[in-house]
Every structure is written in structure tokens, then in C-alpha cells.
Amino acid sequence: MKRLPTAGNGQPLVLGIETSCDETAAAVVAGGRILSSVVSSQVALHRRFQGVVPELASRAHLQKIGPVVGRALDEARVSRTDVVAFTRGPGLMGSLLVGSVAARTLSRLWGCPLIGVNHLEGHIFAAELGSESRPIGTPFVALIVSGGHTDLILSERPGGYRVLGRTRDDAAGEAFDKIARLLGLGYPGGPAIDRRAASGDSGAEPFPRPLLPGTWDFSFSGLKTAVYYRVKDGPRPGRTRVSDLCAGLQAAVTETLIQKTLAAARRHGVRDVVLGGGVAANSALRRGFKALREQGLRVAAPPRPLCTDNGAMIAHAAGRMLRLGSRSLLKRLLRPCDCLPARSLRPDPSLPLASWAS
Ligand SMILES: Nc1ncnc2c1ncn2[C@@H]1O[C@H](COP(=O)(O)OP(=O)(O)OP(=O)(O)O)[C@@H](O)[C@H]1O
Ligand SMILES: [Mg+2]
């Protein structure tokens, strides 16, 4: 097996490239320490369409990937890294292809290993990054809430994952984005709803909690319909305030997410719960998750800037695979990139969160 060169702290320097959706991102990470993290957002490009246009996204990635990677290396004060990691999926195919080609090119140029990372694994372990973070041990239950996912995941051993439940319709972030559009709050909707909810009264405009008893699945499309009917004929004069609607809606979504996460942790006898994905930046969700400590749970969440897509979480997830992987996994990963079986490096828009530990 090839020995991996290491950075000053004895950990390999990993370049992480993330292009699964509408952020072009790159970061250099060594052993959980972020040396640089550059994120170029395409929000302004997609705003007038109120959502991500895949073709525009991949073209913008093509323009930005070179400068973003260059800046990440410059800010980390390195000219190359020991490993290159990239997001293999899930995500938009055109966007994923740009990141994968950039990563493959660099690993060939530098003659170093190339690792394809599952985006969701990146979101989970973003909670290990940041100054107040600590390593997440198994078993744990993770809640990934983002623009494309609302997944409840059980991990009983390092690199082993079981998806307990997921959304049956809209993801939590997608529901926030669509409802914000209904309310004329702009794009992306999640942060706008979060801001408006801060001055609202969640009791003034209550919404049902879609708990779907008996399953670990979620469903948020009914809340979208409920908001639609409340605003269809215009706000009731002097009564309906947008900030109250936002607060009521946010409470319904976040309480549902928290209750189901707590129930899953209890059902599986797990003390560690992890929050990840763009919606993990939501103030009410972060407060509610922190409050789970009073129920005896240990709670981990990423710092706000690392909740939405970034390259640091991809680099870190790859670093964990190198640190915790079995000898056979390492043997496979540490061969030069052109010898790797092509399947493990092929971008896959619907890549499932599969276990890599045997
Ligand atoms: N403060 C916030 N409150 C609620 N939602 C938020 C907040 N900040 C961001 N979001 C939501 O997070 C989502 C973006 O998250 P992320 O970047 O992880 O999604 P994605 O990468 O598009 O989806 P996925 O990770 O499933 O592929 C958007 O739907 C956005 O509205
Ligand atoms: Mg994401």
C-alpha cells in the first residue's frame, strides 16, 4: 500500500471540491482543521427564476471552479494537497460533472489519490468542524435537512448508515423556499422565513404538525397548501401578519423535525444526535435541537456557515474515510486515481447514502 504524505500535524492535506447544486466550493482541510474554505454562491444568478436552473448552474460552475480552487489553495498557503476529494452525488448531473472533472484532473496532475464523497455524509460530519466541535462517535442518529433532503439516518458503526425515514414529498428547505415564494419573500426562502419569524408570534397563526405516526417519514407539502389557502384571498385586514405566518409555519416544521429525531434516538437507544444541511442554519431548529440536551441527549450541529454546501465538509468526510476505513478500503483508495475502479468515482445524481465500512 502506498504511504500517504502528511501535513505538519501528521494528517493528510485534503482538497475538497463541492459542486452538487448551486455553490461552487473548495476547501483545504487537515485532520478536521480548516485551512481555507471558499464558497462562490450562484444565488444572484438563479434569483429571478426563484429556483436553481440546472443548465445555468453547470455553466457557472465551469467558469468559477478554477478561480475557486486556486483561491482555496492560496489561502491555505499550499500549492498542492495529498488527496483530492469531490462530491460524487447526490445532486445535479451537470454540476457534479464539473467538480468531478476538476478533481480528477488535479489528482492526475499531482499523482495523488482521488476520493468520491457522498454529499450527505459531508453534511453529517460538518458538525465535527468548527472551534467548539467534538468528534461524533457511533451510534448516532442524524437529521439531514436541506434543499433536497429531509432524512433521518441511524449510524451504528463508523461508515455504516441506515436511512430510517425521509420526506415523502417536499424537503424541509424546499417547503420553506416554495412557501416564501407564495408569501413574496424572495429567494432563497429559508433564511427569509427565519428572519420574518423572529418578529412573529407562532401562536397567532398555528399550523398542524405533520407527524405521520408509525413511520420515520416526513411530509411538508400539506403545510404549503395550508399557507396557500390562508393567503389566497389576501391577508385578513388587520389580523394576518406575514411574520406570524412565518413563525407559525417555522414552529410546525421544526417541532415535527425535533420530535421525530428525539423519538428515533429513544427507539434506537442512542444518545448522540447530529443535525446537518442548509436548514440546520434555522434559528428555531438550532434552539430546539440544543434543548434536547435537557432530555439527556448529546447534540452536534455545524457552525452556521458550514450548514449550507461547502468544500470543507467534503474534504473532512474524505479525511474520516482515510482515518477510519478498513485496510481493504484504504488499499483501494490509496492506489493512484487511474487504477481505481471507475464506478467508485462516477458522478451519480441519485447516489444513495451507502455504508463504506464492511
Ligand atoms: N436559516 C435558514 N432557515 C431555514 N432554511 C434555511 C436557512 N438557511 C438556508 N436554508 C435552506 O437551506 C437550503 C439549502 O441548503 P443546502 O445548500 O444544504 O441544500 P442543497 O445542497 O441545495 O440540497 P441537498 O443538500 O439536499 O443536495 C435552502 O432550501 C434554504 O432555503
Ligand atoms: Mg447540500
Can you describe what's shown?
The protein has 358 residues and is α/β, with parallel strands linked by helices. It has two domains: 13-126 and 308-345, ATPase, nucleotide binding domain (Nucleotidyltransferase, domain 5), CATH 3.30.420.40; 137-301, 2-Layer Sandwich (Nucleotidyltransferase, domain 5), CATH 3.30.420.40. It has eleven helices and ten strands. It has helices at residues 43-46, 54-75, 93-110, 119-125, 172-182, 189-197, 221-232, 242-267, 283-291, 311-324, 327-333; strands at residues 13-18, 23-30, 33-41, 83-89, 114-118, 140-145, 150-157, 160-166, 272-276, 298-300. The strands form two sheets. A five-stranded mixed β-sheet has the order 3-2-1-4-5, with helices on both faces. The protein has a five-stranded mixed β-sheet with strand order 8-7-6-9-10, sandwiched between helices. A hairpin with a 2-residue loop joins strand 2 (23-30) and strand 3. Helix 4 crosses helix 10 (311-324) and helix 5 crosses helix 6. The longest helix has 26 residues, at 242-267. It is globular. The mean pLDDT is 92. It binds adenosine-5'-triphosphate and magnesium ion. Magnesium ion (MG) binds at residues 119, 123, 146, 277-278, 309.
